[in-house]
Amino acid sequence: MEGSSSIKPNIVYILTDQWRGSALGYAGNPDVKTPHLDAFAKASLNFKNAVSVTPVCTPHRAALLTGKFPTTTGMFLNDIYLPEEEVTMAELFKEAGYSTAYWGKWHLDGHGRTNYIPKERRQGFDYWKALECSHNYTNMPYYDNENSELQHWQEYSPFAIVSDAQQYLTDHANDDNPFLAVISIATPHYPHGSAPKKYKDMYPPASLSLSPNITEEFEEKSRKELQGYYAHATATDEAIGSLLDKIEELKLLENTIIVFSSDHGEMMGAHGVKPFVKQLAWDEAARVPFLIRYPSINENAGKVVNAPLTTPDILPSLLGLAHIDIPRDIEGENLSELIKNPDPNMDRAALIMNVAPFGANYKDAPYRAIRTKQYTYAVTPDGPTMFYDNLKDPYQQNNLLGKADLMQVQNDLDVQLHKQLKKIGDTIRPRSYYMKKWNYAFDDKRRAIDWWSWKEGKGIVQSPQSVNN
Questions:
Q1: Annotated active-site positions, please?
Q2: I need a labelling partner for 230 at 20 to 30 A (CA). Which of 13, 17, 149, 190 fits?
Q3: Comma-separated ranges of CATH 3.40.720.10 domains in the chain
Q4: CA distance linking residue 256 with residue 42, whole number of Å
């Protein structure tokens, strides 16, 4: 380990839910009001092509905490259990002398969505005000550390969670050892209608502009959903702003790495896919915000990195910035040098995948895709399906597959994709192969892992833990 724990940076990781990379003022969105994050973008580095490795909750969170790809851990579905044997972010930072804290939505426990999660299943987080999964923002349940009785936040959950996090930062601002604080806010994920009225009133549906790739059948529905979506975003921006103000007030800025990101986006009617749906390789679902501010950012504040980043890259990059040894089995790339020396011209291939589409996406084909700073390219078990030039065609309306004058570019992207897959020992196979390999079973009607039977005491844990790979 380099350096002593006393000079290691604190880390505040703000993880939101279903916040699309395009749905922010600083990203050029003409409608949504996000003044606090817009200001933070000017003080941070902006990875404008960050993607979610599998654009849905549990797989993203598992990849974020382990630095490994879903095909390696088996964590490619919602509502499965991340085994205790996995070495995670909190455990690695704890070993380096950090205090660890977690708030909000967890979605890695696989024991139903409202059951108490005992300390041994919290993956190294000590301070704990969290719940497996709820989107009841006006009466959000949670568990308070070792109290196994369900509690409820007393106000709109982004404000309540941030208020508690502010108190934690205040209590630990002068500690000898640094802290890792992961603040997992479940907005702007649906239900969109539950956003506070004050914020919904800012967004009359008729006034909202629609992306040109939203199909006619979804125009009315998308405007209605965007009203609440943007309202949640603006309210959450306000909560995050108060958190950033507290960090500054406590004089923690010069020794704290702050990240703002999301686990995935949502389609919102683009390409004829109804609102709420994700899991897909199109930018609406896969591209997420990723702002990072670090000590001594100085002249790099406000710079943009065009090279994509995918979820498993985040943990090794944070470890790199904190001068903590990176375990050999972490698969993501340590991008700390790029973060400290941002080069807008650098490019790389960031992997996106959906190994076993489920729920609303059950009829979709599984895929592997890459995002470069210019292109998106995707392949299913039946062959290539997507090839977009995101610079010329930002709404991905012109599929370039098979165009004679671009065959060399397509072939090069195919080589890059398979090179990324080879690195992690993955090939593009049908869903049934992975379901069998990891011994997973869907509910016959909902085509998803059954989390609702836990309410009746009939839940069954499905986890990679039981598989000998």
A1: 57, 107
A2: 13
A3: 10-348
A4: 17
